[in-house]
Amino acid sequence: MTADALHIRVAEQAARTPEAVAVEMGRDHLTYGVIEAQSNRLARAIAAAGCGKGDRVALFVPKCPEAVVAMLAVMKAGGVYVPVDLDSPASRVAHVINKAEPALLIAHGKAHRLLADLSAIVDLPRAIALEAPGLDRAGLELAGDYGQLSGHSSDPLPPLSAGEDLAHLLFTSGSTGLPKGVQITHANACSYLDWSCDYFGMQAGERVSGHPPLHFDLSTFDIFAALSTGATLCMVPPAANLLAPKLAEFIREAALDQWFSVPSILTYMANFDVVTEGDFPALKRLMWCGEAMPPATLIYWMERLPHVTFTNLYGPTEATIASSFHTVRGIPASVMDATPIGKPCGGETLHVLDEHLRPVPDGEIGEIYIGGVGLSPGYWRDTVKTEAAFRTVPGENGAEIRIYRTGDLGRRTEDGNFHYHGRTDSQIKNRGYRIELGEIEVAVNSLDYLQESAIVGVDVGGFEGTAICCAYVPEPEKDVLPQQIRQDLGSLIPRYMLPTQWIPLDSLPKNANGKTDRPALRDMFRGQMVGTS
């Protein structure tokens, strides 16, 4: 790949395989030729609405093939697309709008309720209707209609953005409760695609999953790796996530070559035992990213799918999709064997540093920092947060290098592999002991009568410091009491690491990206402690 812009790479592939299916979701599908023509027309409509180079365009669009058309069109018009989580409350989206200051919206009828609520609390720019029904109740001023684009030429506009220009703004959760806008350039994303498409051997004709929501950075890989190589992006309908058998059925019927998701989805499917021996015969590779994979889940999948390669990817949004990788060569010997986060992807560097930003020796735990081609320019219009998270340190040749503070703890072993050891904020002090909550969570997740569990710390002050709290989901039709879990954990971890607070649940709460919602769990335990005090 040579083009340094996402939309140009897709256009080049469309020229090679115009009749091939680019995106499908259920019965809906668009070919490469159709996507190219429609995105060119929409780009001209966006330009006609007054959007120029660097302008932000907010996408109020659910996961669907036309959403990809909208992304491409914004970039072709020189703009920066801002995908909006349609399940977020209007108050949170209002912060995104106020921060991003979009010049235009691209709106879908399914977002009409959110848009109506939003228009009551923030001034919205004009919109182009991607699908009009329902938008008449949203109070929008329309600058165009996707169904009326035939008046615009399907010829491409001259290239208006590339390289260091922004491709999109992704708003992630912030420590203050307000989302932060992570800036991602074309060069950031294209650099990762160069490495990943080559490493995974992606090629024309393959069928690739599109599982994450469109505002989650993992979707960038699914969409643009597929469309840069001539593969078909098979979007997973959100409704399929509600039932584990439906997800397994989707993988089978779509005859996927590649599956990529957060580990929580894989654990969910394993808990319901929906994968049979030798299942998914078309599947070549399975990847995960976003959180640690429970070893028991990995063992479940690897035992049933010996024909599949399994790769752990690691990295925050601020470093563009993933910064390190580890392909697992054999089934873990124990449910306590955590998978390494591996070695840096091409063009990336990982560093384990102490509190003074000095390297720690191999084998010792420090904080993980990331450098290299994937680093975001920083947070949109937030110099303070950018300077706090992105630092400069001396490189090997004495020149300054820029690094990002992940907030993750880790170590590097002599073989060059990096290992994740939880979050800096998950290392607590309890009764004088320094404890890594991730170690407790690995132990709890190894118990075969639990579907899933999570460990969080809640500050209670005094000598105890931070209370160790365990939320757990028992296997169906099993009555599991905390006393039994404590007794079994006693043979795996020291007594001072045993949780003191417990909440049984039907399922762990998940955030919009499918990860375990740990702030919600902390609130549950705080409420429980108040109720029993």
3D architecture notes:
The mean pLDDT is 91. Helix 1 (6-16) packs parallel to helix 7, helix 6 (186-200) crosses helix 7 (218-229) and helix 9 crosses helix 10 (295-304). This protein has four domains: 29-185, 3-Layer(aba) Sandwich (Rossmann fold); 207-339, Rossmann fold, CATH 3.40.50.980; 348-422, Luciferase, domain 3 (Roll); 431-532, 2-Layer Sandwich (GMP Synthetase, Chain A, domain 3). It is an alpha/beta fold. The protein starts with 5 loop residues before the first helix and ends with a helix. The chain has a five-stranded parallel beta sheet with strand order 4-3-5-6-7, covered by helices on one side. Helices cover 29% and strands 27% of the residues. Helix 7 (218-229) links the parallel strand 10 and strand 11 (232-235).
Helicity, as a percent range: 25-40%
Q: Give the N-to-C terminal Cα separation.
A: 62 Å
Number of strands: 26
Average pLDDT value? Answer: 91
Architecture of the largest domain, CATH level 2? 3-Layer(aba) Sandwich
Task: Give Rg in angstroms.
Answer: 23 Å
Q: Which blocks of ≥5 consecutive residues have pLDDT under 50?
A: none
Percentage of residues in strands: 25-35%
| CATH topology group of the largest domain | Rossmann fold
Main sheet makeup: 5 strands, parallel
- Please state how the strands of the largest beta sheet are arranged side by side: 4-3-5-6-7
Assembly of the depicted chains: single chain
| Structural class based on helices, strands and sheet pairing | alpha/beta
Whole-number total of structural domains: 4
Tally of helical runs: 14
Shape label: globular
CATH class of the largest domain: Alpha Beta
